[in-house]
Amino acid sequence: MRSHPPACCLTGPITRSRRRAWRKLREEVASGALATPEALMEQYAQFNRALEGYEDLKEIRAELDERSLVVNTDDGQVFDDLAGAELSLVYSQRGLSYIRHLNTFLNKANEALAQGGYLVCHSRTSALKRKVIMKVHPGVLGYIVFGLHFFWHRMCARMRWTRWFYMAVTNGKNRSFTRVELLGRMYRAGFEVLNERYRDGDLYLLCRKIKAPIWDDDPSNGIFVKLNRVGYKGKIIGVYKLRTMHPYSEYLQPYMLKYWGLDEGGKFANDYRVNPLGHLVRGKWIDEFPMLINLFKGQLKLVGIRPLSPSYLALYTPEMQALHVSVKPGLLPPFYFEKEMPESIEDVQASEKAYIEAYKAHPFATDWRYFWGILGNIVLKRKHSK
User: What are the start-end ranges of the E strands in 84-170?
Assistant: First the structure.
């Protein structure tokens, strides 16, 4: 949707007002902008508008504090010599959807920042693009144009057999990211999102470095997803499922817990990571079928506690964490055996504790009894999770 001028294009003088805007931005960071992140976001928006059309930022960089950096690039090479530089702020002028190697860019920005340093960036999300297209092309034509845009800039950009062609044609420019995916990419890169706001047709993000980035995983964009879960004796296993959430949703559990908390049954409240089709699939248990692969590999058994992510398991009491890793997880969780579905995470822990204690005393008899009880509740009483 947005185009950028060629590199090294300077279209006018760097005025005092632009320098003042940047100084004000730096002052916000130096004075503890974490307490009022909205103020920093406001300054960022003003500064971004002031620098519209400027590609060669060497003169501007000369005005900056040595621990701040403005970048306008489509990869992370600008950070190659800055690992461990302990920067206080990285400002990305270019929209994230125009950065071809986005994960590399975010990870290298993290490594160049000091602990607690800021990353300020922006992007036009797929929802915002849809609004623009529907405004320009009202009615049926708008749906057709957006459908073609979505197919080309989102689906073709992700599917393994079309991705190479898409990248060759577009060089990775103008891809469509959902808000959920952008947030997930930030957390994968070791940032926490302090503030987000919509302004000037883009989603603006204020992020802070809280840990090292993840380099050695393989984020999935396809129909199947492999999720890291805690298995027997605390070993991390990859659990297979059909994708029911937006890409990179698996990295957002800390964010969801912080801002939304848990709902009934220990689920995340208002979990907008689930896509529309995902709600239907989950209600029919279809997303669970690939977990049969883990059953055949011996990582799961038919009946047992659910394999949990490390961040979710950390919500359990220390006693339950130790109990949880003392047995092999399973496909059919014990709370489906109960008369009523759990209403809180404490109820889930109580159900799992009762099962584990019974299982350790009589393994086969316990699983046999739980299996038929769970099957009866699912088939006859139509029990299912959200």
Answer: 87-92, 113-123
Among 328, 380, 375, 385, CA closest to 355: 328
Structural domain count, the chain: 3
- Buried-exposed string 146-164: b where 16+ CB fall within 10 A, e elsewhere: beebbebbbebbbeeeeee
**How many Å apart are CA 312 and CA 310, to the nearest integer?**
6
Print the domain residue range for 283. Answer: 227-379
Alpha helices (runs of H) in 189-331, residue ranges in sequence order: 253-259, 276-283, 292-296, 310-313, 318-324
In a domain, 11, yes or no: no
pTM over 0.85: no
Q: Kindly state whether residue 146 falls inside one of the protein's structural domains.
A: yes
Q: For the segment 111-167, what is each residue's pLDDT rounded down to a tens digit?
A: 999 898 888 889 999 888 988 899 889 889 999 999 998 899 888 887 878 888 988
pLDDT band of 280, cuts 50, 70, 90: confident
Strand-strand pairing, 202-209 and 224-230: unpaired
Neighbours of 225 (CB within 10 A): 21
Could you give the 3-state DSSP secondary structure of residue 25? helix
Q: Dihedral through CA 122, CA 4, CA 79, CA 77, nearest 10?
A: 130
Q: Which of 329, 330, 324, 337 is nearest to 302 (CA)?
A: 330
pLDDT digits (tens, 9 = 90+) for 177-232: 989 899 999 999 999 988 888 877 888 888 899 999 988 777 766 778 888 899 99
Q: Are strands 236-242 and 224-230 parallel, antiparallel or unpaired?
A: antiparallel
Q: Is the dihedral of CA 315, 320, 321, 325 positive or negative?
A: negative
pLDDT band at 35; cut points 50, 70, 90: very low
Whether residues 275 and 350 fall in one domain: yes
Bridge partners, residue 274, by sequence: 245
CATH number at residue 102: 3.40.50
Same domain, 96 and 245: no
Report the C-alpha gap between 18 and 46 in whole angstroms: 9
Is the domain of 78 the same as that of 144? no
Separation of CA 284 from chain center: 25
| Residue pointed to by tokens 């099962």 | 355
User: Are 316 and 252 members of one domain?
Assistant: yes
> Six-digit token pair at 352?
């799992």
The answer to whether the CB of 319 falls within 8 A of the CB of 273 is no
